[in-house]
Specification:
There is one protein chain. The protein has 941 residues and is an alpha+beta fold. It has 25 helices and 40 strands. The strands form ten sheets. Strands 10, 11, 13, 15, 16, 17, 19, 21 and 22 form a nine-stranded mixed sheet that branches. A seven-stranded mixed sheet has the order 27-35-34-33-30-28-29, sandwiched between helices. Strands 1-2-4-3 form a four-stranded antiparallel sheet, with no helix packed on it. Helix 4 (135-152) runs antiparallel to helix 7 (236-263) and helix 15 packs across helix 22. The longest helix has 28 residues, at 236-263. The radius of gyration is 34 Å and the shape is flat. The two termini are 34 Å apart. The protein binds 4'-deoxy-4'-aminopyridoxal-5'-phosphate. The site of 4'-deoxy-4'-aminopyridoxal-5'-phosphate has 14 residues, from helix 16.
Length: 941
């Protein structure tokens, strides 16, 4: 029984001691807690009472009891978080090591308390209690614990023994929120299992507690092991003992838990725990022990293999004396590129069923054999909408050849085993053993074969084609799956090296690494260059609403509004390349593309008055040009723009850019021809009621009056018709109508920046201004207009454009080039053919409905902004104060990346999830995104 005492002096825990707790154990605890305090580890220190002791006597319910008063560690429990971020797991590992290190300083001899949790006696405990385990689980526990004990046995003599806490687990640590809103452990409680034990058992217990989660695995626990090792370096034998100990801990938990349940039928606490304990055991035994050890060694920067083959050359230099199959290693052998960048996989070919077989068949039409290399992640193995990393990394070399081709021994060897469709051949030379495992072969041979001897025939696996799948088992006897996740590739490279050298082939270079590429980029780019993500994936392909990295992972792209019709649409790439082959010049010449594109743009314009087009290369240029046109036309220099806006980077576009995120000193550094008015943001601004539009417009009017009285009359008013940069915030009703009227009444012109929100994205409307029921005098567009091909435009009235003549000629070298025009026309064609504006309406509507439903369940969501496929989910720490949850938003975006979703923060507060995907987004995509977001908001980030 524990009581929380909330006193003016602070919070305390009054612990009523059980009869079994011995005074000597308590005194060791006191020592331990003193040492931990000295080591800076937060733990509940006992208070000395009136009798000078940390143990007090009291009467409770008529009986005499012993009590202790401990400092109360305030905070949350880690057991409540379903998902643990790597930084949190790492903090738990450091804490576990810090505790072990602190306890080392306790001078009193550590007691051997004979606890069943002492992993030194795990074997006895398991044997004694195994009978209580339900039958369906008993054998698995028995086998795994025998194996773990056998692995541990030779290491025991080298394991250090000391006083350990023995239970530094998710249950027994106290957490504080970090800046990202994640619970991070800072203190340890429950010293009831304090006793002598193996030092490495402290870590094994901590690690096993991390396996009790739906998505947890050895891989996700590695940061804890790494962090422990950093604080308290483990010896080689301790590292080897770690995973067997984790398995044993899992087994002890299972047998003890089931035993407890069998003793006390009604003990719900025990029965509930049993399933969690079984999950720990299952997770610990789901990895091959050799693989587990290799992963841990690799994570600790140790050489992954304990006994690497002596001859490293063996693994890299070609060594075969005879080709395994005819044509191998000659020009008769075609290399099949199934990687992310392979031209064979353009135009979505990677999604076809049996893509590998189809490409192999094509290659065999002109070659004797085709080879798909080891270690090059295969896009053909990728899956879309997958929240886990797909197994794309081949541990094998695949050889495609006509069925029934003969397979020969590449060197003098021995066939050591033969299966129904596989053989294993091995040879030993100068102390090194080379072992090849080949699948897809029928063989009746056994025993010794000489180089060149026939070993068998290749089996028909796909309409006359055979595939020999070759794995190099020289380094370990681990039978690796043919495909593993790329994150583990370093480990698999060590366990099952490239078989190609053993086949007499020169191995291929590995694919480029994202971290290396990041370093290369940082060397060239200025710090001011914006970039996404702490550890960005290396994206080298896009397809429709997906981005694909070099590891063959497909991410759902929820932010690329530039790729409006989707990434790499073949209709667009064909239009561009066809035009590029024909002609690419500039708009001073006559070609049809110019008028073709302008005609289409003017057809889309919100009013027939907007009949004149100027073509440029980007949104920035369009805004810059629009400002210049307005100033020339009105003869006034004053431009009024809204707060929180982004309009581009050139001198003029930047002058009207007022977002504090894009430029922290924006407001202080505006040139005198810019006047900034409050953004009519109904979620955050000074007016949030139904008549906000009127209120903001009135204030606008008043400000214009004040300006006019100083002799400064407005030349142009510029804004996004939906506050895109603020996260898709819709303007209050009637705002633009009133403001445009006011501007025009004063002789100014109205510029609508439709670069982000216009061009069909809103679903209900082609233009943002339509949502407000207004027609601007000048429209700027870019981004989606060329789908990433540089293309922008100003659409305006003929009389306004005429003002440019006063300054001579207008010309932009690449603006409106034949290729730009071809791109612009193809984009509009695709939008029409695929009904993308309508799709934005339907899918966007579905997405918004689902997001609003999420908002009802997750208080972090303040509101959902936007329309169509321009939406924003605004995250706040408090629904009342609307304090922006900016760090949480950043962390959530990082977590969504792990789940396969590209999402980024926006608004000057960086607390809005910006949702502006390609317009070909499907309902399934929208559901996947919302489900992932739901999981993150529920389970943590
Ligand atoms: N206007 C708006 C509203 C924008 O969002 C942007 C770009 N984010 C621009 C103009 C500038 O366009 P670009 O990057 O093509 O120069």
């Amino acid at each position: 029984r524990n009581f929380l005492i909330d006193a003016p002096e602070g919070k305390f825990l009054l612990k009523v001691l059980g009869a079994g707790t011995s005074e000597s154990d308590l005194l060791i605890q006191d020592d331990a807690l003193t040492q931990l305090a000295l080591a800076g580890i937060a733990a509940p220190r006992p208070r000395v009472g009136a009798n000078g002791s940390t143990i007090q006597h009291a009467t409770m319910g008529g009986s005499q009891v012993r009590v202790r008063l401990l400092d109360f560690l305030d905070g949350s429990s880690l057991a409540d978080s379903t998902y643990l971020a790597p930084s949190v797991i790492s903090a738990l590992g450091s804490l576990s090591a810090g505790v072990a290190l602190g306890l080392r300083a306790v001078e009193a001899p550590a007691p051997d308390r004979g606890l069943q949790w002492d992993l030194r006696r795990a074997g006895d405990v398991i044997v004694a209690l195994l009978g209580s385990v339900r039958e369906s689980r008993r054998e698995a526990v028995d086998l795994a614990s025998r194996d773990a004990r056998a692995r541990l046995e030779p290491l025991i003599g080298a394991l250090r023994t000391q006083l350990i806490h023995g239970d530094v687990t998710d249950d027994n640590v106290v957490c504080r929120d970090d800046e990202y809103g994640r619970a991070v452990p800072y203190g340890v409680i429950d010293f009831g299992d304090l006793a002598e034990g193996w030092l490495v058992a402290e870590l094994a217990v901590t690690v096993s507690s991390l396996l009790n989660r739906t998505r947890s695995s050895l891989a996700s626990a590695l940061p804890a092991i790494r962090a422990f090792h950093e604080v308290l370096p483990l010896r080689d034998d301790e590292v080897r003992a770690l995973w067997p100990l984790v398995v044993l801990r899992g087994a002890v938990l299972v047998v003890s838990g089931e035993h407890q349940v069998s003793l006390e039928e009604g003990n719900d606490y025990a029965s509930e725990r049993v399933e969690g304990e079984w999950r720990i055991f299952q997770s610990a035994t789901s990895v091959n022990p050799v693989v587990a050890e290799t992963m841990i060694r690799d994570a600790l920067g140790m050489s992954p293999l304990i006994d690497p083959p002596h001859d490293a050359q063996l693994l890299t230099a070609p060594t075969a004396e005879y080709p395994l199959v005819a044509g191998l290693g000659t020009p008769q052998c075609e290399i099949l590129d199934f990687s992310t960048t392979s031209p064979l996989l353009d135009d979505g070919a990677w999604l076809q069923v049996d893509a590998e077989w189809a490409l192999a068949r094509e290659a065999l039409a002109s070659h004797r054999v085709a080879l798909a290399p080891y270690g090059i992640p295969r896009l053909t193995r990728a899956t879309v909408l997958s929240d886990t990393e797909p197994a794309t990394w081949p541990t094998v070399t695949d050889l495609y050849l006509p069925a029934d081709s003969l397979v020969s021994a590449p060197f003098d060897a021995k066939i050591t085993s033969t299966g129904p469709n596989s053989i294993t051949v091995s040879a030993t030379r100068e102390g090194d053993t080379r072992v090849l495992h080949i699948e897809g072969i029928a063989s009746a041979l056994r025993g010794i074969v000489a180089a060149g001897d026939t070993m068998g025939v290749a089996l028909d696996q796909h309409e006359g084609i055979a595939r020999l799948r070759v794995q190099n088992r020289s380094a370990s006897d681990v039978a690796a799956a043919p495909f593993v996740v790329p994150s583990d590739s370093a480990v698999w490279r060590a366990l099952v090296p490239n078989p190609e050298p053993l086949l007499g082939l020169v191995p291929r270079e590995p694919v480029p690494d994202a971290q290396d590429e990041q370093r290369r980029r940082l060397a060239f780019f200025p710090a001011a260059q914006e970039r996404y993500y702490e550890n960005p994936p290396l994206f080298e392909r896009g397809w429709r609403e997906h981005l694909i990295d070099m590891r063959g992972r497909v991410y759902l792209d929820m932010v690329n509004n530039v790729a409006g019709v989707g990434h790499s649409d073949p209709r667009l790439t064909d239009a561009i390349s066809t035009q590029l082959r024909l002609l690419n010049t500039n708009s001073r010449f006559l070609y049809r593309g110019l008028s073709d594109l302008c005609e289409r743009l003017v057809q889309h314009a919100p009013s027939p008055e907007l009949d004149t087009v100027l073509l440029v290369n980007s949104g920035t240029e369009a805004v810059d040009l629009a400002i210049r046109l307005a100033q020339l036309y009105t003869g006034r220099r004053l431009v009024v723009s809204l707060r929180e806006a982004y309009h581009g980077w050139s001198m003029a576009a930047d002058a009207v850019t007022t977002s504090a995120y894009d430029n922290p000193v924006a407001l202080a550094s505006r040139p005198d021809w810019v006047h900034v008015v409050e953004s009519p943001n109904v979620y955050r601004g000074s007016h949030r009621e139904a008549n906000a539009g009127e209120d903001y417009a009135r204030e606008f009017d008043n400000e214009m009056d004040a300006l006019a009285s100083t002799g400064e009359a407005i030349g142009a008013f510029l804004c996004e018709p939906i506050l895109g940069n603020a996260g898709g915030v819709l303007l209050p009703e009637g705002y633009l109508r009133r403001v445009y009227d006011s501007v025009r009444a004063r002789g100014g012109v109205c510029i609508a920046d439709e670069v982000q929100v216009g061009y069909g994205r809103l679903g209900d409307y082609f233009w943002g201004v339509e949502q407000q029921g207004v027609v601007p005098d000048i429209i700027t567009i870019a981004k989606a207009m060329g789908n990433g091909y540089p293309l922008g435009a100003v659409i305006t009235r003929r009389d306004i454009a005429a003002a440019l003549q006063n300054e001579g000629h207008f010309f932009s070298s690449a603006g409106g080039s034949p290729v730009s025009c071809a791109a612009g026309i193809a984009v509009l064609d695709i939008m029409e053919q695929d009904g993308l504006q309508e799709n934005a309406r339907v899918v966007g509507g579905h997405l918004a409905t689902r997001l609003r439903e999420l908002a009802g369940r997750h208080p972090l969501i303040g509101t959902v902004h936007g329309l169509g496929l321009y939406l924003g989910v605004e995250l706040v720490r408090d629904q009342e104060t609307r304090e922006p949850a900016d760090t949480e938003t950043a962390a959530i975006c990082e977590r969504l990346l792990e789940l396969g979703v590209i999402m980024q923060p926006t608004s000057e507060r960086q607390n809005v999830l910006k949702i502006k995907p390609p317009l070909c987004l499907t309902t399934a995509d929208a559901d996947f995104f919302v489900d992932c977001l739901d999981e993150v908001l529920r389970d943590g980030w």
